[in-house]
Amino acid sequence: MSAFTLSQILVAIAIVFDLISFQFKARERIVACLFISGILISIHFCLLAQWTAAGLMGIATVRYLTSIFTTSKKAMWGFSGAAVVMSALTFSGITSLISCLGTLFQTRAAFCQRDKDLRLLMIVGTSFWLIHNILVGSPVAVLMEMLFIGSNLVGYYRHYLREKLTPS
């Protein structure tokens, strides 16, 4: 099996965790699913030799685990700084910049106290990762980001819009 094929299989498994993540209301459960997904996605990027993305997802995995226990702004800034340093050390052009921007939005999201804010910032960050994955040629990762955004929007609708839009 080629490294590319294995990378796509790992991302397909990550998709399952991404899809269920935003169907939870509790931010701890959302972030726990993202932690598992992050491990798989980081390995996926290693197999594709996308070192900035692999490093950023490795940092994201630790960030998700940490944010289950704290929403500390100090932790958020520490992970943001680590993302910028990782991007600088592994810089390989526009894809490094795009993935760093996506990570910075998702880092802010992970440390939001309200799951509503987490959802909205994750949509922005995921949009950057969608562009990144198109540019690096990972079709299953592109699908993953599209499904992630869709799942997030469904969860947002279920938890915040349905009651407002449904007549009483």
Automatic annotation (TrEMBL):
InterPro entries in the record: Uncharacterised_HI1736/YgjV, YgjV
Keywords: Membrane, Transmembrane, Transmembrane helix
Pfam families: Imp-YgjV
Transmembrane segments: 6-24, 31-59, 79-105, 117-134
Protein name, UniProt field: Predicted membrane protein
Species the sequence originates in: Shewanella oneidensis (strain ATCC 700550 / JCM 31522 / CIP 106686 / LMG 19005 / NCIMB 14063 / MR-1)
Lineage: Bacteria, Pseudomonadati, Pseudomonadota, Gammaproteobacteria, Alteromonadales
